[in-house]
Amino acid sequence: MRVALEPIVTTDFYQPEEWRLARSAARTNRTSIYSWKTSGRANWLERGYSCVDCLGLVELPQGLPDEVPMPNDGPA
How distant, in Å, are the alpha carbons of 25, 36, 47 from that of 71? Predict the structure, then answer.
């Protein structure tokens, strides 16, 4: 699935169980894999694959910080 991570980049989104596919794409494209983490209403991207609190995986350019803040969910 394609997703837009404003203002960074448009990228592919992988389900956590597709980590092998994401890793292969990152190697081919010379990019990094980030885990889209979520806890409560907080969201952030964390470099690498971690299945704990992981919504999915995204492929981002190399050279970004280890953690990238994302907008938090609004009130329920």
Answer: 26, 12, 17
* DSSP label of 33: E
Residue with tokens 């992981």: 54
pLDDT digits (tens, 9 = 90+) for 28-37: 999 999 999 9
Please give the model's pTM, rounded to 2 decimal places: 0.81
Is the distance from CB of 43 to CB of 73 less than 8 angstroms? yes
46, HSE (Cβ side, Cα atoms, 13 Å):
15
Phi/psi at 51 (5° precision): -80, -10
Residue type, 46: E
Residues in the chain: 76
Residue 16: DSSP 8-state: G
Residue type (1 letter), 6: E
